[in-house]
Amino acid sequence: MRKWGIIATWRMAADGVALGADILKNNGKCQDAVEKAIMQVEDYPFYKSVGYGGLPNENCEVELDAAFMDGKTLSIGAIAGIKDYKNPVSIARKLSEDRFNIFLVGAGAEAYAHKNGFVRQNMLTERAKKTWEIRMKEINEKNLSPYDGHDTVCMIGLDSEKDMAVATSTSGLFMKKRGRVGDSPVSGSGFYVDNEVGGAAATGLGEDIMKGCLSYETVQRMRNGMSPMEAAQSAVEDFSVQLRRRRGVAGAISVIAMNNKGEWGIGTNVEFTFVASTSEEEPKVYLANPVFNEDKTVKEVKIEVASKEYMEEYKRNIQKPLEEI
Ligand code: ASP
What we know:
There is one protein chain. The chain is α+β, with helices and mostly antiparallel strands. The strands form 2 sheets. A 9-stranded mixed beta sheet has the order 4-3-2-6-5-1-11-12-13. A 4-stranded antiparallel beta sheet has the order 7-8-9-10. Helix 1 packs antiparallel against helix 2. The N and C termini lie far apart (47 Å). The model has no long low-confidence stretch (mean pLDDT 95). Bound molecules: aspartic acid.
């Protein structure tokens, strides 16, 4: 049997991964698998950090970042701070076909999307608006940090012809400043893939992920012989140690990785969920929990398959009625 595989960040990727796995199982291409899988997440209104329903910036505008990379040609396309377009990942993929102007932001990205026939849509849902109003109130009343509540969907795919692709999509930090761009559309930080080695992608505090170019770092560690698990965990851990030593604090960082044999791994310095499927395994949602030493270094990361109860509770939580938010 020819090998294929797909791995993605966060529980929200589960249905997308199932769709991507189906494409790969039927000898489809990895580029299509990761794009379609991410579109599924972008279109689902209850996922509050990606696409439609994504959480807005401090001005209550949904600004989206996305990227696409092809591991065979190393082609990249990326957009940042785009408003009111339905599937940012597809716009990023289209840009990856170009030789010049492959990373567009704001009004330029919107003009490109319009010219190329992408669907315009108001991406702010009632639910996201209400969450914004509540947070605004909390910030004013309790002086809370505004930035909690962010996640990126990242997908890495390997197809039966041994090609690889990676893509990302996010609304970035909740309550971010207008124009703020995180790691997700930035090559080497939010994502990287090379058919000759494998791919990696990151989620967490973009401001810190960008300081260590963690996706490229993870791919380089695999190039030098590490397994995806060793590469991702050591890249996250070594850099978290550096950040604490040199800046006093390390933000949340999680990295997924897959090599060109379809072996996968993750690294994280916080509780993290991810989804994986290969020619040998059905799509599964995993929970990863770091166990810490006294000096805050990570002793080990415990990985287990999510229980049925966890899955049900998650669904109840994201779909709870508007009045209960
Ligand atoms: N890395 C994203 C950003 O900083 C957010 C996340 O993945 O949680 O925009």
